[in-house]
Design brief:
alpha/beta; Rossmann fold; three-stranded antiparallel sheet; 3 helices; 9 strands; 22% helix; binds inosinic acid; binds magnesium ion
Length: 179
């Protein structure tokens, strides 16, 4: 059987949310030059839209890769982090981590543990989506887009097994295990 996509958040609603988050960041980062760190791969479209809505001069855009999800819909619970830039660039800087979804919270927690060890001046989290029902570790989301129910979602950069990232809206994916 084929997977069923049901629209959850429209392109227009995403754009409004991204604009609101950019305004909140601009307000808080006035007179600062933050480093924005996108978490690959899921945040790449959100990151691209978010920074283009921000007026704040960003000194560096960095990308990190966390491995938590394999080829399925359930997190393995083990998380590794990779970053291109040397750790020294983080020291003493204002860091904004940009995430697609906070689900169990394990990925974000791992990223924050590693990044805080690099001694940034400040470290904040901006997440487009929050799925609080599945949280295993508490995560403070400083800049939150939308809270969603415990459904598997795709689109706007977010995948199921690498598929559906290109969809401009966000959808719930029904029966993904039967793909
Ligand atoms: P966490 O470690 O469980 O919080 O998972 C975080 C990552 O899992 C997110 O950045 C997403 O890439 C992925 N993820 C969580 N929920 C979903 C979903 O509903 N669809 C696709 N990917 C998801
Ligand atoms: Mg991801």
């Amino acid at each position: 059987m084929t997977a069923k996509l049901v629209q959850l958040i429209s392109q227009q609603s995403i754009a409004e949310t991204v604009k609101r988050l950019a305004q909140e960041l601009d307000r808080d980062y006035r007179d600062r030059t933050p480093i924005v760190i996108g978490v690959l791969k899921g945040s790449f479209i959100f990151l691209a839209d978010l920074i283009r809505q921000m007026q704040t001069p960003i000194q560096l855009v960095e990308l990190i890769k966390l491995s938590s999800y394999g080829s399925g819909t359930v997190s393995s619970g083990k998380v590794q982090m990779e970053m291109g830039a040397p750790a020294a660039v983080i020291a003493g800087q204002d860091i904004i981590v940009v995430e697609d979804i906070v689900d169990t919270g394990l990925s974000t927690t791992k990223a924050f543990q590693v990044l805080s060890g690099y001694e940034p001046k400040s470290l904040k989290l901006c997440a487009l989506l929050d799925k609080p029902d599945r949280r295993k570790v508490p995560v403070a989301i400083d800049y939150l887009g939308v809270t969603i129910p415990d459904k598997f979602i795709v689109g706007y950069g977010i995948d199921f097994d690498e598929r559906y990232r290109q969809l401009p809206d966000i959808y719930t994916l029904e029966s993904p295990t039967e793909l």
